[in-house]
């Protein structure tokens, strides 16, 4: 086969990779318009419902903690299920759980809210393991950062649309009344159901539709996912969990979970509960979500345009992760100055170290999003490089650890003040970033040694 023919095939394959990732990203954007908006307002939403009906005792942090707990536990089974039904079917089936989650808030029943959290946690485990699997099956080592970023930019656009809708609904309101809450739930449920319909049109992963000459090894690596039995997939997950490099990355995985819970439900609630920002501070909750999405979009766009450029640098990934941590650590310090310690628990007129102001709240939201985008792209890229034969298992392990960390963070928010949580975030983020740098150095030395041994 001529070199021009090979180059042409590679170009066509790259285009199909990008198309698959863009389509999945669009579907996730539609679906998470609903979930991100609901997760963002869940704590104040349920607090308002309790004011209307004292017999209703569901707590937003507890509900989210339950969700992430079941998400983490069920991740051990997700690779086995994917080995039986494949990532596309898994994505379609798991999306039903997100519709059930939204619907569970309509009747304001404690058991129904917590039950919806359980269902969504089980579904999320299958969804995100399948998403990571599908991403790697549609990528090569040189394109994984770009493809992840394409998906992430589209996916994170959900933060704009869902929160913009909620912002419009909450304008001028000091609390979330029953009728407004029901309108939000009905609209979000309809969008979630539409996303499930779109899941039926996901394309086959790229390696199934064409074998590339320059990536035959890559195709053989990922084929194990479809060929291994469910018990083998499970046992390999257990063995991977005990690998020294995975253990060294555990602080990073924990930090990722802590900062996910912080930006997805805790920080925005703290802003909404800080009454010194205005009597109608609840409208700031979706506005913070929009600025978090803006930060994600900034990072994702840069990585799409320059992802291949960064991959050429020996320590490109370390620089990206370090940048993400520095940005978020700076953000946490500004939040420490701008919001009172008691804001995490509910409405408060306590004063912060500085006079609480809205522009700083929004800037911090954007900085959280920038850091999250840095960590997300590089974690997936490193896992793909470390264990390419076990993509679904490594993704499941990563999500398992960060899900348990998220659950712990949500539960602790009922007891620990905001400032204590910020300190925990900084310490785990620093430890995790150092661990990432050490593991990256080990992986690069291993790749270099392997390359020398082949010559």
The secondary-structure class comes to: mainly alpha
Q: Residue ranges: pLDDT <50 for 5 or more in a row?
A: 209-227
Shape: globular
**Beta-strand fraction estimate:** under 5%
Order of helices and strands: HHHHHHHHHHHHHHHH
Number of strands: 0
Number of helical stretches of at least 4 residues = 16
Largest sheet properties: none
> Helix content range of the residues, please?
over 70%
Distance between the termini: 24 Å
Overall radius of gyration: 22 Å
For the residues shown, what is the average pLDDT?
A: 81
What features would you describe in this structure?
The chain has 16 helices and no strands. The protein starts with a helix and ends with a helix. Residues 209-227 have low confidence and may be disordered. Helix content is 80%, strand content 0%. The protein is globular. The chain has helices spanning 3-52, 60-74, 78-103, 110-137, 144-156, 158-170, 178-199, 206-209, 216-227, 230-241, 244-273, 284-311, 316-338, 358-386, 391-412, 418-453.
Helix and strand arrangement:
Layout: H1 3-52, H2 60-74, H3 78-103, H4 110-137, H5 144-156, H6 158-170, H7 178-199, H8 206-209, H9 216-227, H10 230-241, H11 244-273, H12 284-311, H13 316-338, H14 358-386, H15 391-412, H16 418-453
């Amino acid at each position: 086969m001529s070199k021009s023919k090979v180059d042409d095939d590679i170009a066509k394959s790259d285009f199909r990779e990008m198309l698959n990732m863009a389509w999945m990203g669009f579907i996730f954007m539609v679906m998470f318009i609903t979930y991100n908006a609901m997760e963002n307002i869940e704590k104040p939403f349920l607090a308002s419902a309790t004011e209307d009906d004292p017999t209703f005792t569901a707590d937003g942090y507890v509900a989210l903690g339950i969700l992430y707990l079941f998400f983490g536990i069920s991740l051990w089974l997700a690779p086995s299920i994917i080995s039986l039904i494949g990532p596309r079917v898994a994505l379609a089936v798991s999306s039903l759980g997100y519709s059930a989650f939204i619907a569970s808030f309509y009747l304001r029943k404690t058991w129904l809210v917590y039950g919806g959290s359980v269902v969504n946690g089980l579904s999320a485990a299958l969804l995100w393991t399948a998403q990571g699997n599908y991403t790697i099956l549609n990528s090569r080592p040189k394109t994984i950062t770009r493809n992840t970023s394409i998906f992430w930019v589209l996916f994170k656009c959900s933060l704009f649309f869902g929160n913009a809708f909620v912002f419009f609904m909450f304008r001028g309101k000091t609390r979330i009344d029953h009728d407004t809450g029901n309108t939000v739930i009905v609209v979000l449920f309809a969008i979630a159901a539409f996303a499930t319909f779109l899941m039926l049109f996901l394309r086959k992963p790229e390696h199934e539709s064409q074998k590339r000459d320059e990536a035959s090894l890559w195709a053989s690596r990922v084929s194990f996912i479809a060929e291994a039995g469910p018990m083998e997939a499970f046992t390999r997950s257990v063995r991977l969990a005990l690998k020294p490099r995975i253990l060294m990355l555990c602080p990073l995985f924990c930090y990722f979970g802590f900062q996910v819970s912080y930006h997805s439900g805790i920080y925005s609630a703290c802003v909404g509960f800080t009454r010194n920002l205005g009597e109608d501070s609840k409208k700031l909750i979706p506005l913070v979500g929009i600025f978090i999405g803006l930060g994600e979009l900034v990072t994702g766009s840069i990585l799409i345009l320059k992802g291949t450029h960064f991959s050429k640098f020996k320590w490109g990934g370390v620089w990206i992760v370090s940048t993400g941590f520095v940005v978020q650590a700076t953000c946490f310090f500004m939040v420490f100055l701008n919001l009172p310690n008691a804001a995490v628990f509910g409405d408060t007129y306590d004063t912060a170290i500085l006079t609480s102001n809205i522009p700083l709240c929004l800037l911090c939201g954007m900085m959280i999003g920038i850091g999250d985008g840095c960590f997300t792209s590089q974690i997936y890229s490193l896992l793909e490089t470390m264990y390419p034969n076990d993509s679904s298992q490594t993704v499941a392990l990563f999500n398992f650890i960060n899900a348990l960390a998220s659950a712990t963070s949500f539960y602790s928010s009922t007891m620990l003040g905001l400032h204590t949580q910020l300190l925990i975030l900084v310490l785990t983020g620093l430890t995790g970033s150092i661990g990432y740098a050490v593991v990256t150095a080990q992986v690069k030395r291993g790749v270099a040694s392997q390359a020398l041994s082949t010559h």
